[in-house]
Design goal:
The chain has 5 helices and 7 strands. With 173 residues, the chain is α/β, with parallel strands linked by helices. 38% of the residues are buried.
Length: 173
């Protein structure tokens, strides 16, 4: 990939870069850098953190959404604290593969984040991640209150783990 021309499937922001392909995203990462996965909701942002080998995703925290600037500041503070090399942002496609208003909102979040941070952002298809998280919590016999507390960061973990698995399976170009 040329350093001054984004590859196909990427979009250059004022500072950062958004990728649609895991291979393009992986090529931008230095060894040993962790990733943060995000499940972007209307009221909260669930966060997950990878290990330095990028093999395992673990729940990190849930940010209560306020304004974009406050949300981005908290996210970027966590990124600095954990030596993050990139972000995996769940992109909510409809079941038929089309994109609705939530996907447009997520793309806008990525664009705005690109203006504030050089961290590359991978848009990852998150279809059914929240339902998978809910099913996992129900199988673990978690109370409704406990499920509400952890559902977003567990969904972020499922999103991030899917991207990590794909990156390991896909050789770098």
């Amino acid at each position: 990939m040329s350093s001054d021309i984004p590859a196909a499937g990427t979009r250059q922001g004022a500072i950062g870069l958004t990728c649609n392909a895991t291979a393009d995203f992986a090529a931008l990462l230095a060894p040993g850098q962790r990733l943060i996965g995000l499940d972007l909701g209307t009221r909260t942002i669930g966060l997950a953190l990878s290990d330095v080998t990028r093999m395992i995703a673990s729940p990190l925290e849930t940010i209560a959404r306020t304004k974009f600037s406050a949300d981005a500041s908290r996210l970027l503070a966590l990124a600095a604290e954990h030596a993050i090399g990139g972000l995996v942002l769940g992109l909510p496609h409809n079941l038929d593969g089309s994109e609705g208003p939530r996907a447009q909102s997520t793309r806008a979040f990525a664009r705005n984040l690109n203006k504030r941070s050089p961290l590359p952002v991978l848009l990852w298809d998150e279809r059914l991640s929240t339902q998978a998280a809910e099913r996992t919590l129900l199988e673990a016999d978690q109370s409704r209150k406990r499920r509400a507390e952890v559902i977003d960061k567990l969904a972020a973990t499922i999103i991030l783990q899917g991207a990590l698995d794909r990156m390991r399976a896909e050789p770098l170009r």
